[in-house]
Amino acid sequence: MSVQKFQRWRWIRPEIERPQISSSPFHSYIYNQSSSMSVLLNLQVEALAPSMASSSKEGPARRVAVVGGGVSGLAAAHKLESQGLKVTLFETEGRTGGKIRSATEDGLIWDEGANTMTETEAEVGRLIDDLGLREKQQFPISQNKRYIAKNGRPELIPSNPIALIKSNFLSPQSKFRVILEPFLWRHSGMKNNTSKVSDESSHESVGGFFERHFGKEVVDYLIDPFVSGTSAGDPDSLSMRHAFPEMWDLENKFGSIIVGAIRSRFSHKSKKGGNEKPLEKKKNQRGSFSFQGGMQTLTDTLCMALGKDNLKLNSKVLSLSFNDNGGSVSNNWLISYAAQGPTCKGSLQDQSYDAVIMTAPISNVQEMKFLKRRKPFVLDFLPKVTYLPLSLIITSFKKEQIKRPLQGFGVLVPSKEQANGLKTIGTLFSSMMFPDRAPNDQYLYTTFVGGSRNRDLAGASTDELKEIVVSNMRKLLGAEGQPVFLKHVYWSKAFPLYGHDYDLVLKSIEKMEKNLPGFFYAGNHRGGLSVGKAIVSGFKAADLVLSYLNSTDEEGIK
Ligand SMILES: Cc1cc2nc3c(=O)[nH]c(=O)nc-3n(C[C@H](O)[C@H](O)[C@H](O)COP(=O)(O)OP(=O)(O)OC[C@H]3O[C@@H](n4cnc5c(N)ncnc54)[C@H](O)[C@@H]3O)c2cc1C
């Protein structure tokens, strides 16, 4: 059987793909067609699904449109393409990567969006293997050394609960509360004995949840800087259920978060048993990382794997129209987009597809027109998402200008510390983490300003922000004089806020998917804000497309 034919019907059976997706033979099959393993795989798949082979092998390759070239869209496109589908990825900008963007100038390398990621999710590790990016992975030096500003000074965050109890980071009262939490929140397993456990309908805030368990000081000096550093949000505006669903579940299951965390870690370990490869375990435990050249190395590699023929840059999707096609899924979706390249200024073009994965932010989706069977499909049920603005100030100083340099990841600033003149969210010690990001005689820093605590400041002028950042650097690191390099990057919609009414957003996305056959939504508006979660979301949408095409091929559209 030819490779083309094999790929053509691979899409119909996503479940066959699962054991093969990783590092593995399947990947080398796609990229190295001469591999002898491919013959074995062909035989294996043929033996498993002979009826599907005969029903679909004559049909043309399935065509899927992916809207948005951020990491979620690229991940979805990569997965679909590796299953033999024909993918077209539309991106408004002249580049892919979305909120992942690396830059270089004067011997400095910095990130203007995500700075690091983790591979907590197994799919992320497999993707890195698949893309051959292991050699380019960069782990920060002293990544466990992270600081929080307290009384105007950076203090090392204790790296585990025992170190926290031994340190002076919290007051004796707060430490006592942490020690007592497992007893105060003990869950007997009987439903009516859980009156202290938050009710699902209460839409509790992150701050309220952690204050119940650990008290106010923990919220002010650990939770607040953590949530603003990872989502630009604040503990009061963020919904616990949406921002930390795993912890929300721990409370519901165990009562105590500490007990729940310990028990689920043990059960996770025993479930994995001896099957986990020691190397894989080590990789996942190494925490945050980036890549040589910055985070964009990941999205550039995904983009290269996709190939330029499948990529429509400078192509803003304007409208999407769904029409049944005699019960078949073929070409049911018509996508109109404005091509804005140098050769085709503003021209409108249409293309048809069997399914669509949308990864553009909801605010962009709301600008698009949808038609269903030639009638407008109005998105008035889609609520307005709140977005948090953020400015990044990238600075470098000569080493001798920094009187108290700190090794480690960076320093986070709790909101409370604004009273001590610290107005930033935090600063990453970019060249301490990755020494190749700055010339030998300089230190490179990335400082974040704005978020929900300081929305107006996020949009301030470069001069105003420079003053704030330099003053913070003076207080926290003993910086003297002015930076030798400064770059200002502004994101008006850096993060969607997973607020108390975020349920409405998620339900509306589900409603779109339910009412528009072959339409799936992925990206950081669903399931988590991190790069890893966005990748997983893209993969999930790709799986749903595969199942949709499979089921509709057998049953027609309902
Ligand atoms: C400043 C900052 C720092 C961050 N730091 C971290 C970090 O350290 N670690 C971490 O894990 N995460 C971090 N994140 C979060 C993470 O980067 C994002 O959540 C993730 O990259 C989002 O990917 P996405 O594909 O869902 O969306 P996006 O990256 O937003 O991609 C969506 C794409 O859709 C395109 N688009 C929109 N409308 C249309 C249209 N009509 N037609 C075609 N294309 C369209 C956009 O141009 C964009 O490229 C950070 C985010 C920001 C902003």
Describe it for me?
The protein is globular, with a radius of gyration of 25 Å. Among the domains are: about 1-55, no CATH class; about 145-270, protoporphyrinogen ix oxidase, domain 3, CATH 1.10.3110.10; about 385-495, Polyamine Oxidase, Chain A, domain 2, CATH 3.90.660.20. Helix content is about 40%, strand content about 20%. The protein has a seven-stranded mixed beta sheet, with helices on both faces. The protein has a five-stranded parallel beta sheet with strand order 9-2-1-13-21. By secondary structure, the chain is α/β, with parallel strands linked by helices. The two termini are about 35 Å apart. Strand 6 (about 145-150) and strand 7 (about 155) form a beta hairpin. It has 22 helices and 21 strands. Bound molecules: flavin-adenine dinucleotide. Flavin-adenine dinucleotide binds next to helix 6, strand 10, strand 16, strand 20 and helix 22.
